[in-house]
Design goal:
The chain is built from six helices and no strands. It is mainly α and 147 residues long. It has one domain. Helix 3 packs antiparallel against helix 4 and helix 4 crosses helix 5. The protein is globular. The termini are far apart.
């Protein structure tokens, strides 16, 4: 009995069979999706920390700073490793600088929402997450973990 002939290089059907399917393929192929999933987990942790500090009586700016500082190292390894495939410690300084920028932008937005609209500090921070998240992805992709 003769074995089945191998597919020639570039055979689309053979390549399609070798590709991962479903969620695994999406995870591997989409940095944006990985960023959202990993970022969502990191964001939930950060919002819980921030809320705890607010409930403990810290001012919003201080609560934001402390929760951001606590999350930076964890975020470096999860974002760098799981999203961009790079945990090179030489990128940590750029990562920290990016977080400093995100903190400044977040603080400015938080201040505007609290003082100009009268929204409470927890709700205001929840609103800030979207725009800061989008900016953070662009900065991480283009400046921190760019090849």
């Amino acid at each position: 009995m003769n074995p089945a002939p191998e597919s020639p290089p570039g055979d689309a059907a053979a390549e399609d069979l070798a590709r991962p399917k479903g969620l695994v393929a999406l995870w591997r192929q989409r940095a944006g999706l990985r960023f959202l999933v990993v970022g969502a987990l990191n964001t939930v942790i950060g919002l819980i920390l921030y809320s705890g500090f607010i409930l403990a009586g810290l001012r919003p700016e201080i609560a934001l700073m402390v929760s951001t500082v606590l999350g930076v190292l964890n975020n470096f390894f999860t974002t760098g490793g799981l999203v961009f495939g790079n945990r090179d410690p030489r990128r940590l300084l750029r990562f920290v600088a990016a977080y400093a920028l995100m903190y400044a932008v977040n603080t400015a937005l938080l201040d505007v929402l609290i003082h100009l609209t009268g929204i409470g500090p927890i709700a205001a921070q929840a609103i800030c997450i979207g725009p800061v998240l989008c900016l953070n992805f662009l900065v991480q992709r283009r400046l921190v973990f760019a090849a």
